[in-house]
Amino acid sequence: MSKFRVGFIGTGRKPERAGPMGYAMAYYHADAYRLLPDCELVACADIVEENARAFAQAYGISNVYTNHREMLEKEQLDIVSICTWPMTHAQLVIDCAVAGVKAIHCEKPMDYTWGAARLMAQECERRGVRLTFNHQRRFGKPFRLAKQMLDEGVIGKLVRVEFGAGNLYDYGSHNFDLCNYFNGESPAEWVIAQIDYRTENLIFGTHNENQAYALWKYPNGVWGVASTGAGAMLVGAHHRIIGTDGVIELGSMEPGAPALRFRRFGKGEWETVDCGEEGMHGPGYIERAIADIVAALREGRESELCARHALNATEIIFACFESVRRRARVDLPLTITDNPLVDLIERGEIRPQPKG
């Protein structure tokens, strides 16, 4: 069996410690591909040659580029991982699709505008290219078990999904994706939200609010609630899933709480669900995500990390910002193409001050 030829755009510099400006996700992607016998790491590109060469040396890659288009033209890649900043994603994805890449696995969030997010998904669909996004937490044992419990009716019928997080966009991309996962991959029906953005908070070059509160509803009647930043403790958990008969909590912010627990209404204390050593962030989630996108390509099926699912989460994010701009509820589907938060900043309606 021939191997899939894998390439990387945006190697980054391998970080000495994790942080919002230096995760160097390409290294995590490469570690995952390297575990798969049907994948061969053959090329990488980064605008900083030193970074590309260091990455190539780490993984035994012989073909190194500073121009991704040159790499795409010469290497006949089957799979490309894109690990650059969000505002570059759409163009890079489209370049890969035009070059004939079969599967593109891109870091989240999708892109810096709703229009760009939709465009790259549409272009890949039109060309028959498999586009996925790295919402890897779906493959974590706590989240899988929570979904299984929900499907088995442990807490009755789903009523509401909630999350507390640092922000709506950068990290919230994971949270919204998981909310949709718990509710059967349904897109939302409407969104209403408000934010506070007084201190500039740039993550990978993108604006992220300091605090937000969002409410949304799904067509099946399930509600969604998010509270971020200084308000994350309002929810007090990575996710809370509320049913007619009980509650499931993932990543409670209560000191000493387990990764996953549940409680039935009227039946006393929390019950812990054994997740082994797995928490909200791993280990092993990216490896499982990469394994799924490669298996999906090999088997001719849709990956759980498909663009369709990513769009459902991304639409809620931009609808939150559009609700702030309109000062009103936003009914979906979303028809804007820009990033409302950036527009509000550029027009001086929101004026975040530099840190320090």
Structure commentary:
The chain has 356 residues and is an alpha/beta fold. It folds into two domains: 4-136 and 295-300, Rossmann fold (3-Layer(aba) Sandwich); 137-294 and 301-356, 2-Layer Sandwich (Dihydrodipicolinate Reductase, domain 2), CATH 3.30.360. The protein has helices at residues 25-34, 49-59, 68-75, 89-98, 114-127, 141-151, 172-182, 285-299, 307-326, 340-346, and strands at residues 4-9, 39-45, 63-65, 79-82, 103-106, 130-133, 158-165, 190-196, 202-203, 206-207, 211-217, 223-229, 237-243, 246-252, 260-264, 271-272, 330-331. The strands form three sheets. It has a nine-stranded mixed sheet. A six-stranded parallel sheet has the order 3-2-1-4-5-6, sandwiched between helices. The model has no long low-confidence stretch (mean pLDDT 97).
CATH class membership of the largest domain: Alpha Beta
CATH fold name of the largest domain, please? Dihydrodipicolinate Reductase, domain 2
Shape: globular
In total, the number of domains comes to 2
Low-confidence stretches: none
- Find the count of extended strands (DSSP E, 2+ residues): 17
- CATH superfamily name of the largest domain? Dihydrodipicolinate Reductase, domain 2
- Main sheet strand line-up: 16-15-14-13-7-12-11-8-17
| Structural class determined from secondary elements | alpha/beta
Mean pLDDT: 97
Largest sheet: 9 strands, mixed
CATH architecture of the largest domain: 2-Layer Sandwich
Number of helical stretches of at least 4 residues: 10
User: Portion of residues in helices?
Assistant: 25-40%
Strand content: 15-25%
Terminal residue distance: 57 Å
